Amino acid sequence: MSLKKILKKLKTYIYPKLYNAATNLQAQRSGVNKHSQKFRKALTEQAEAIHNEIDTIIKDMQSEIDDMDAQHLAAIYKQEKEIDKSIDEITQDILNLQNLLNSDDVCLVTVYTSRIEEFSFPFQLNVTLPAFIPQEINKEQICKHIWIRRN
Fold first, then answer.
1. Contact at 8 Å (CB) between 100 and 109?
2. pLDDT (tens digit per residue) in 45-100
């Protein structure tokens, strides 16, 4: 093959193809960079959405705990007031009975009515508190929520 033919083939056939291939590679590199930037931005937005959803769920659960606390404390406070009232009444009855026993008035002693039945109900309040059992974080499930499709 002559030098002229080689030069012609290089100029008209090989060089333009390689030049186009190089240009296409530059365009692909630019496309990859743009795609990666968009992909990172979308991933960041998805992460923010997931974090916001988790924060909302945690705040709701904390509010439920606060509500349960308020209900339990109200029940305990009510029971405590009832017990205090009963203690006061029993203390007064004890004093009254001691006074009656020390009294010489037989009529008063026979008229006394026992209130023991009023005080014999169970005062024990059992508050059932929920248990917290943290679950293992399933990375696979998290990835499914983000879902990356690869061609």
1. yes
2. 988 998 999 999 999 999 999 999 999 999 889 989 988 988 898 899 889 888 87
Confirm if 146 and 46 have CB atoms less than 8 A apart: yes
User: What secondary structure letter does DSSP report for 121?
Assistant: S
CA distances from 46 to 42, 137, 139 (A): 6, 18, 15
pLDDT, one tens digit per residue, over 125-151 is 777 888 888 888 888 888 877 776 655
**Alpha carbon 126 to chain centroid, angstroms:** 26
The conformation of residue 107, written as its DSSP 8-state character, comes to H
CA dist 96 and 112 (Å) reads: 10
